[in-house]
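Why do we care about 3D structure at all? Because function follows from shape, and shape follows, mostly, from sequence. That is the central idea of this module. The next example makes it concrete: a single protein chain, its amino acid sequence, and then its structure expressed as tokens.
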Amino acid sequence: MKNNWVRWFRHILVVPAFVFVALCLFLSGAEAEAEDGVGYGMEKVDVFHIELNDMIGKWVDVNSETMLEFQGENMTVDYGIWADTYQVSLEKTAYAVTIKAKTGDFGLMGDISVNEDGSLTAYEMILDGASRQFRFVREERFAAEKEIKDLSEDKPKTIASREIESFSLVFSNGFGSYGLGEDWASGYYSWEINRNRTGAYQMSFRISGDSYIIMAYREEVGADYVEGLADLVAEEGIPSLNGYYRMNHADRYGYSLYISYISGETLWVRAEGDAADECPFDIPTLLDYAYQATGQKGWAD
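And the structure:
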């Protein structure tokens, strides 16, 4: 029997069915079956031929202590502080395969999507808060799922141009991330500069929380300011990182720096999941340059 607080918490969850359909549109057309069955890896699984008996065993969530255990038509969800067992069924449409509870839901999450990469995913949606992704893989595949992979591409390591066409830096700061000072607000950062047809530059700098905006700057900036940014990128040696990409499947904000130049050259550095705990370029130095234009680091200074 669930505690009363659990019942109350479940009432604030909103899990629209269309989210799961949208997430699974890519599943149609899969043809190859994995040698080890549904689990984890670069293999492709023909999800439309999966049955419940193929899922028997324990599945571990990459992002929490939550576990699933399948036994025929029964599935036990263990959240670490309580567990519930549900009768389940597979629903197959032209676009998606989902695991559904015959009682209607799974407590903290909605329907579970069966993915062609061998994982099972679901989402919780909490009012006034960030949703969490559940990503389940077979217990024996958990270590491989958490391993940080280097997917870097071979890109030119020098940039000749100093004329930026567009600039984008996005990341999340949790008070002191990447060496940022305490005066920089905690939140999700999005800094963009774009050149229009007349050659003028529009700059936006936005910091937001889960359900609120901390800062929203949007102004035109001069070509000399943008050229100074290009010089700073070169001085910091960021072009030598071009093509850098590391990731694992942990559900957390990553970072991405993308710059395109009028010459046609591009510069891209990014990381996802636990790989984003460290950044190979100096975010504080770049933000200090942004501050020269915005004069703000969070709530109105």
